[in-house]
Amino acid sequence: MPKETKIVIVGAGASGIAAASRLLKRGVSDFVILEANDRIGGRINTTNFGEYVVDLGAEWVHGESGNVVFELASKHDLLSSDTGLLDPIKYEFATINGEIMPVEESRAAVSIHRNILDKIKPEDLKDVTGSYGDYLIRK
């Protein structure tokens, strides 16, 4: 017979885990967390990348007012605008195997990325599923 719960937390991302933590600290354990993916973490995803480990996702801070992440990142000067964010001269790009891409290949990849972004209309994203990377690969 299924257990009845009064509290349902939707998503096991940072907010869902924080909500569960607060409930537990207050002595409440009668809750369930529902997660659509096969892992916890939401947009935060640390994964192997060749011989290295990288963090995927959660690279943007959305919203300034009342956003604890924005406040913390601002305090430590960790925020920047996207101006020059994808500059192949300024940054090195790597393949999934961890190999550094030649600058010309990086420039081509950045150009393709920008062209796709320039053509996206909000209505194009209405029925999109999967990750941002999956969407770019399809395009």
List the helices and strands and how they pair.
Layout (H helix, E strand, L loop, with lengths): L6 E4 L3 H12 L5 E4 L10 E5 L2 E5 L11 H8 L27 H17 L12 H7 L1
Parallel strand pairs: 1-2
Antiparallel strand pairs: 3-4
Q: Can you put this structure into words, describing what you see?
A:
With 139 residues, the protein is α+β, with helices and mostly antiparallel strands. It has 3 domains: 1-44, no CATH class; 45-80, no CATH class; 82-138, no CATH class. The protein has helices at residues 14-25, 68-75, 103-119, 132-138; strands at 7-10, 31-34, 45-49, 52-56. The strands form 2 sheets. The chain has a two-stranded parallel ribbon. A two-stranded antiparallel ribbon has the order 3-4. Residues 15-107 form the Amine oxidase domain. This is Polyamine oxidase 1-like.
